[in-house]
Amino acid sequence: MSFVKDTISVPTVMIISIVLLLLLLGWKLVDWIWFRPKRLERVLRRQGFAGNSYRILHGDLKESAAMREEAMSKPMKFSNHIAPRVIPSVYHTIQLYGKNSFMWIGTMPRVHIMDPEQLKTVFSLINDFQRPTMSPLLKLFANGLFSYEGQKWVKHRKIISPAFHLKKLKDMIPEFYHSSNEMVGKWESMISREGSCELDVMPYLQNMASDVISRTAFGSSYEKGKKIFELQSELGALVIQSSLGIYIPGWRFLPTKSNRKMKELSKKISTLILGVMNEKEKSMKAGEAIQTDLLSILIESNLDEIKDHGNNKGMGLSIQDIIDECKLFYITGQETTATLLIWTMVLLSSYSKWQERARAEVFEIFGNKKPDYDGLSRLKVVTMIFNEVLRLYPPVSMYARTVNKETKLGKLTLPAGVMLSLPIILIQTDPELWGQDAYEFNPDRFSEGVSKATKNPFAFVPFGWGPRICIGLNFAMIEAKMALSMILQRFSFELSPSYTHTPHAGLTTQPQHGAHIILHKL
Ligand code: HEM
């Protein structure tokens, strides 16, 4: 006679559970690295998209890295057709497969959106097409309006927008003037007895843009602001360095040398900003003159929330929110505006007739006097020149969006899990939209505004478009007009023989080896 147990023992249950869990994890892994990409590929191909077949794990990453390395290995001949050097893999994919194409970023397909009408829809439907989520490491460096979505973004945008209204920007004109004046003053001191000097204008323009943000963000606490941004740059370099490796969740919590340094810097920055905020709050309460800097504007509009240490009903920004937004202005506003000015100087050096036309306009409006707000808003030729520089050399060459649920885009149905790439550097130079002279530097095309310059106004979006358009657009344009007017009032300039044409995509579209220019004192 045998005794049969009709219940399963606890160890058996545990073993079965572990096996099931391992099977589930195994299935998820296989699905992630093989079945899901293949499924997405089929859906895209069925809708007419073309691209390389999926290759396990790395997709097109190896080729993209090789193309980028090759493009950066040598300068290009001077031409405004810079996309092959700036975004080589995207450019070659579109050449090979056409405008309806995709690439593999590892296991994720990235679809190229080249049609301006589709672009408009992507910019409009901000909840369906969101910016990719930032890694926690990047958030340490650049949290704030740029990375928020949904209600949080709505609230922040609403509160911050008034700080960038034209009336507030008008009050900031003395700060814009001060920073540009310091830069041209330095250049004047470098002019030789023969009346000229050669220099790389890139670091000077970057320093000027950084100075502008320190002054406009921190006002009377400008020196502390400068220190804050120095630390911010140091933190940025470490974050970028760490982001280059493979992302391992939780790695940032390990006490490695670099992690400790990043934490230390982040803490120092926050403490310094907090110190400045306290000073400003005190002076506001003491009834001192209203200040016009961005930080004071944000503090003023959030005083109730701040008094309550951010525990208010959530109507305003908390202290940490304000700290994050101030850090973000520096990251989003410094390099972009400097880049616009760098390429403007390079192009006006190469197209001397336009330099002369711009200078004639500046002298007609200001003579040798300080540029003022009203005069800056009347600069027509200078505006046309900036538009043409932003068209050919957009500081942000490509935008990214994610598709988190199946979404319609015109006739297309995009499956969840694909990424979108908006290569505006290609759209802004597409001969079908801009004519056969699309690669020529011809500011005249903007003489009757953007709508007359192209077949579709959504083919010109250097600041993005729609609800999430760059909040600093007017700030950047006033700053750039002030700097260029003051440069044109004092100097004529040409490319130095040591200049090499090397546009490439770093954080923005920059000359890889600087912008070497010869200045002549007028
Ligand atoms: C020539 C100069 C500039 C260019 C070309 C530029 C370009 C852009 C672009 C293309 C976007 C949107 C990207 C996307 O849709 O994914 C953007 C967003 C943004 N920019 Fe700028 N920018 C410039 C200057 C500035 C300045 C001076 C500031 C601040 C002081 C600034 C602050 C921001 C912020 C906070 C956002 C996020 C807006 C939001 O998501 O609501 N930018 N910028």
The shape is globular
Number of helices: 22
Query: Total strand count, please?
Result: 12
Task: Output mean pLDDT.
Answer: 90
Percent in helix? 55-70%
| Relative strand content | 5-15%
> Which sheet architecture does the biggest sheet show?
5 strands, mixed
Structural class: alpha+beta
Radius of gyration: 26 Å
Small-molecule components bound: protoporphyrin IX containing FE
Strand line-up in the sheet with most strands: 1-2-8-5-3
Unreliable residue stretches = none
| Ends distance | 114 Å
What kind of assembly state do the chains in view correspond to? single chain
Explain the overall architecture.
The chain is α+β, with helices and mostly antiparallel strands and 522 residues long. The chain has helices spanning 10-46, 61-72, 83-86, 88-97, 116-124, 136-142, 150-160, 166-171, 173-190, 201-218, 222-243, 257-285, 294-300, 303-307, 319-350, 352-366, 373-377, 380-392, 424-427, 431-434, 450-453, 473-490, and strands at residues 102-105, 108-112, 129-130, 196-200, 399-403, 407-409, 412-414, 419-422, 491-495, 503-505, 509-511, 516-521. 56% of the residues lie in helices and 9% in strands. The strands form four sheets. A five-stranded mixed beta sheet has the order 1-2-8-5-3, with helices on both faces. Strands 4-12-9 form a three-stranded antiparallel beta sheet. It has a two-stranded antiparallel ribbon with strand order 6-7. The chain starts with 9 loop residues before the first helix and ends with a strand. Bound molecules: protoporphyrin IX containing FE. Residues 131, 145-146, 157, 328-329, 332-333, 336-337, 340, 395-396, 399, 462-464, 468, 470-472, 475-476 line the site of protoporphyrin IX containing FE. This is Cytochrome P450 CYP72A219-like isoform X2. It is a single-pass membrane protein. It comes from Cucumis melo. The chain crosses the membrane at residues 12-35.
